[in-house]
Amino acid sequence: MRILVLSGPNLHRLGKRQPEVYGHRTLEQIHERIRGDAVALGAAVECRQSNHEGELVEWIGAAQEQGFAGIVFNPGAYTHTSYALYDALLAANIPCVEVHLSNPEAREPFRRRSRTAPACVGKVAGFGEDSYLLGLRGLLQRLAGSR
Ligand code: DQA
């Protein structure tokens, strides 16, 4: 089973970006951990990051044709603004789990609304990099249940 793991804008700066909020580990270190967990769970992941909304829309739109069974997605700040990503997820024909390192609902008011979560089967937030791993587990369980 192949899973696409996507991260949106500014997440390439993890490790340097507000470590008190997002932790000290880089996105590449987090990707390494996700790859290891995926193998242990009998899956394979491809991890990508983009600062561009349109590129994320294209990756989501192509995911099913590229053989991915589901998506784990941290949309970064696009979470709170992007109807284009919401529409892309609705059109993806494969399930998506939204993940966040921080708990956006415990932060500034503008972060309390997710535009993208309503197009997802679930959401994990507030557990640092473990949010990605928990999201991956939940998605794989859901996919196993739907076979
Ligand atoms: C984030 C939360 C968003 O509000 C923020 O814009 C990010 C990171 C997180 O993982 O906690 O870029 O998605």
Topology of helices and strands:
Elements: E1 2-7, H1 19-22, H2 27-40, E2 44-49, H3 53-63, E3 70-74, H4 83-91, E4 96-100, E5 122-125, H5 130-145
Parallel strand pairs: 1-2, 1-3, 3-4, 4-5
The protein binds 1,3,4-trihydroxy-5-OXO-cyclohexanecarboxylic acid.
What is this entry, summarized?
The chain has 147 residues and is an alpha/beta fold.
Can you describe this structure?
This protein is an alpha/beta fold and 147 residues long. The chain has one domain: Rossmann fold. The protein has helices at 19-22, 27-40, 53-63, 83-91, 130-145; strands at residues 2-7, 44-49, 70-74, 96-100, 122-125. Helix 4 links the parallel strand 3 and strand 4. The protein binds 1,3,4-trihydroxy-5-OXO-cyclohexanecarboxylic acid.
Q: Going across the major beta sheet, what is the strand order?
A: 2-1-3-4-5
CATH class label? Alpha Beta
Helix and strand element order? EHHEHEHEEH
Biggest β-sheet, characterized? 5 strands, parallel
Whole-number radius of gyration?
14 Å
Helix content: 25-40%
How large a portion of the residues is in β-strands, by DSSP E?
15-25%
